[in-house]
Amino acid sequence: MRIARSTPWCVVQFAPNSAGRVATVSDRYKNVSQRPGHDRSVNETTDRSYGTPRAYEALKRELIGSLAGTVLEIGAGKGANLAALSRVDRWIGLEPSRARFRTLGKASQRLGARAEVVRGRAERLPLADQSVDAVLATIVLCSVRDQDRALAEIVRVLRPGGTFVFFEHVEPQPRTWSHRAAKVWAPISRVVDHGCDPTRRTWEALERSEFDDLSVRWFELPAGFGLRMPYIGGEAVKR
Length: 239
Description:
The chain has about 240 residues and is α/β, with parallel strands linked by helices. The chain is built from five helices and nine strands; from the N terminus they run ββαββαββαβααββ.
């Protein structure tokens, strides 16, 4: 495994490489170790150099706006990301909630014939193998029942060279007020907020996944009552 260390930053710019794919953050950092038999680059996720809320939004705009071709959005909700997906040829919005499904169908009309809304869960995607160019998930992996299964399904439906773009809130640092608050709120949140668990260690699930290249960036956003919660954002590539 190749590990690329992250550095503090505010705004990162991405540019397509010669193959037309948006270069990952990990492409830009020095490889410092390798495990024989597994060619994979990963950002150093234990070195948390937190980005600002402004940097978080900038990276969201950059990565989501770069998605093209056939794009599957998991947990598309009410269609909040549709405005940023101007380059897609076909957008498939997956939503398990019956109420949100209806709202999403109306919101997706802005894409016209390019949009398709389907019911389903991330752990069992109703798509064929290697059928999409990119997968998008924003604040979704906190709610899935089985993160490993969901990520395996994402790898399955992606074509070679395909990208998974993700933005997620994750478990706060232990022994902090934010961590204590998240532990107290988690049982309630799982019931009232579509299964959302603010104590998920999603970066570990990403590291366990079968993606070949993984870039993870850390952010810290205000959460009210003086608390600040960690978020991660980035992309994973299937070769």
